[in-house]
Amino acid sequence: MLYVLICKDKIDSEELRKEVRPQHLQYLEDFDIKLAGPILSHDQTTMIGSMILLDCENREAAEAFASQDPYLSLIHISE
Asked: How far apart are the C-alpha atoms of 39 and 8, rounded to whole Å?
């Protein structure tokens, strides 16, 4: 089943996002990601979040995926 994860970044976290990106990309390799990328601000250059289209068994698996993503604990706002 496909799940869309839309994550908002904490304010002023772009530099930390760039530092953590290699770990985030490595983490994604273990999952069936159909589409992913940053969400940009109105200036079209500043990253302010992420969107991931994930194929997994159920909602619990999608939530487990999100909870272990290196970006979540460092730059994304938990809601």
From this structure: 8
In this predicted model, what pLDDT tens digit does every residue of 13-41 receive, in sequence order? Answer: 888 888 989 999 999 999 999 999 999 99
pTM: 0.83
Using CA atoms, how far residue 59 sits from 26, 56, 63, 78, in Å, is 22, 8, 6, 17
SS3 45: coil
Closest Cα to residue 39, out of 5, 67, 79, 70?
A: 5
Task: Give yes or no for a contact between 49 and 7, defined as CB atoms under 8 angstroms apart.
Answer: yes
Cα Rg, the chain, nearest whole Å: 12
CB 24 within 8 A of CB 67: no
